[in-house]
Specification:
The structure is a homodimer of 416-residue chains.
Chain A: E1 13-16, H1 20-35, E2 44-47, E3 52-53, E4 73-74, H2 75-82, E5 98-101, H3 104-108, E6 113-116, H4 123-130, E7 139-142, E8 147-150, E9 153-156, H5 157-165, E10 168-173, H6 178-182, E11 187-192, E12 211-212, E13 216-222, E14 228-234, H7 245-252, E15 257-262, H8 265-287, H9 291-314, H10 321-325, H11 327-339, H12 341-351, H13 356-363, H14 370-385, H15 392-402, H16 410-415
Parallel strand pairs in A: 1-2, 1-6, 2-5, 6-7, 7-10, 11-15
Antiparallel strand pairs in A: 3-4, 8-9, 10-11, 12-13, 13-14
Helix pairs in contact in A: 4-5, 8-9, 8-11, 8-12, 8-14, 11-12, 12-13, 14-15
């Protein structure tokens, strides 16, 4: 790493978002920027939604003589001076070359690689704010789990970002519980990155041949709903190291965070959505006390339906081995069915004989479960396609949620 | 089910073996024999290695006036009168049409379907005892998990049984903890069954075209070591329902025990062996406190190496989707890495800072772990082939066991 040739310019990195997963990823990226000085600028920007925080008297950072400890302070100031996001990732020291920036526009300015890591309800608004204010040849990586499913089709968050900003955006997803990654406990993740070839010789199967001018490539992309979009991509100037699989690995791979870079953006993104639905069923079955055999059976059927869903709705643009071989597939499914919040809340809902909404309320502090939302969205989509029966587990989860099926009925229903 | 046509004869079933898994399977088979009277004889034989047992005063079967409660009794007598194997599967009522038979030869006499379910060290001796004393056109199903690996090659237990007895034998394996199956907790299992076509029109890829006489088919089978064996199979008389996937499903499928019948005997058998090696690594990682991400990463790499092992050594005779789609593959791996004994002992060995042999001694009552044996056997085989480096997780497990690698080294070693 670090010996990618003598380029005159270096990549500037910005992380957009600073929740617990945002900070964990920013920590990794900043560590790698510092240790690969031939490729990356040392200073990494992180956009932080500014808010007031207070360093408590029991904190390791408390110092009665410090101005930072005199009442409420800006979160960015605390991060930049104490190198810790005391609100969203307390206890973890962030690298000193990571700069918290309260200005979104200033944070992304001049950056060639933008890492998006924020709750998905904020994606569109955030992208609209920086549209036209980023380098036209920037590249993105979306760390936002899942996909956006509605009756009409399935949209990848990476595509939404790319379309608004007019850039190419890949995806990162995997068996990653943020707190464990932040503590540098060993884990793996998948990055999917497959931009159109700027020499336009080998178009991907989901794109029509592109036409290129000196530094502009235009390509057509057809999403799962059949919607065609035209994207104009600007080539990266040749004095930067090319943003390829090797550079992305240099940016995200750590001794405790092992990266495999693949080309299947849809597969990597889809796994992160569907596994939450499967995790609900696994939680119910576990809550029933049906044991490890039954839970493993649910996960097997879930994996099978993930593969089938990919084959059916993405065809040749997806590699079904992503689900069975990559961290974003089977490993993320396993983690989510072990201790993820969808699994836990579903299990509690059986044990306490409460609705899952009730458990959400008492356990999640007002946050909503991703799995229940996705189950409804996926069901609306399948229903519209007339394909509910072909995905019995995904359908069963929806029906249990809406109350038309009981957990006891799942085994016989998914058997067919 | 049950409407397979008006055959004049019915299949007689014998279960060879009566441990906890033997009895759980015998219970299923006897339930199905009773509910499919058009296909199966109602009475199912189970061979029981005779021993003396005593009904304790606290037992629900204790009746001071019963002769069965006067001191030590034959296990078979207790099973036949109380319908419970009080020694190996206590608390579970066995069907009244299941007959415990202390005579191996008498138990298998006239049976058309033999279900083998006994510890693998007894397979050869048991088969030798009944060789020539079974119906020449009988068919077998081996419920013995795993495969027999040595330096020379990999042998399936089903093939060993078939070769000694001169019959065709398939395999059953899956995510099945015996005690949970016995309690009728829902689970799934895989049966693999792919006998040569008796009309010899469509030989399987691992067999040369067979020559058939009126009721005899001779086929050649080449195992993974390249060893060629000739088997003469006698056709089932046409007044029996053919032993096919539908009949096997009728015999093993229950509302609480869902069966998928496939043709990949090698895949179904291999999964049951290799997952135990992976479970050791998962146990170590869990014992280290590395969290769910790390455990999922180990399982992902394990699944990948299972697929690769199958592809490499079984080529076209194996279906790699067996590992990623069937209960005998990914689901059994998940169950084994959740609470299986290999997982538990490996985890304890880290937590107690003891060797795994020491944990075996204190936890398993003199029994040996399957995973440690298989890890050594697989490593001998890989070493002989010069392929240790291509299977880094399987190799790492062996090296940790022999003391030349530490658990801390596993992540970086398997990364390559």
């Amino acid at each position: 790493m670090g010996s990618l040739g003598p380029y005159q310019r270096k990549h500037k990195i910005t992380v957009v978002g600073s929740g617990n997963w945002g900070c964990a990823i920013a920590k990794i990226v900043a560590e790698n920027a510092a240790s690969n000085p031939a490729i990356f600028e040392e200073k990494v920007e992180m956009w932080v939604f500014e808010e007031k925080v207070e360093i408590s008297k029991t904190s390791r950072h408390y110092d009665p003589s410090s101005p930072l400890c005199q009442g409420p302070q800006n979160l960015t100031d605390v991060i930049n001076e104490k190198h810790e996001n005391i609100k969203y990732l307390p206890g973890i020291t962030l690298p000193s070359n990571l700069h918290a920036n309260p200005s979104l526009v200033d944070a992304v300015k001049d950056s060639t690689i933008l890492v998006f890591n924020l709750p998905h309800q904020f994606i569109i608004k955030t992208c609209e704010q920086i549209k036209g204010k980023i380098l036209p040849y920037a590249r993105g990586i979306s760390c936002i789990k899942g996909v956006d499913v509605n009756e009409e089709g399935i949209h990848l968050f990476s595509e939404t970002i790319g379309k608004i900003l007019g850039i190419y955006c890949g995806a990162l997803s995997g068996a990653n519980i943020a707190s464990e990654v932040a503590l540098e406990k060993w884990s793996e993740s998948s990055i999917a990155y497959d931009p159109p070839h700027m020499d336009s010789k080998a178009p991907s199967p989901n794109r029509s041949p592109s036409t290129s001018t000196e530094n502009l490539v235009q390509f057509e992309h057809k999403d799962v709903s059949g919607q065609l979009s035209q994207v104009k991509l600007q080539a990266l100037p040749s004095d930067y190291p090319p943003v390829d699989h090797a550079v992305l690995k240099s940016l995200f791979h750590r001794p405790y965070f092992h990266i495999r870079v693949v080309s299947d953006v849809a597969g990597v993104s889809l796994g992160g959505a569907l596994k939450n639905v499967v995790a609900l069923a696994a939680g119910w079955v576990d809550g029933m006390g049906w044991g490890d055999n039954a839970k493993a059976a649910i996960m097997r059927v879930g994996l099978l339906e993930m593969v089938k869903f990919g084959e059916k709705f993405f065809g040749a643009t997806i590699n079904t081995r992503t689900f069975t071989e990559e961290s974003a597939g089977v490993a993320d499914l396993i983690t989510s069915c072990s201790g993820g919040r969808n699994f836990r809340c579903a299990k509690l809902s059986i044990e306490r004989k409460q609705s899952i909404e009730k458990v959400e309320e008492t356990e999640l502090n007002g946050q909503k479960l991703q799995g229940t939302l996705t189950a409804v969205e996926v069901n609306n989509f399948l229903k519209k396609q007339g394909l509910e029966e072909e995905f019995p587990l995904l359908t069963a989860v929806y029906r249990v949620l809406e109350g038309s099926m009981s957990v006891e009925d799942i085994p016989s229903y998914i058997e067919r």
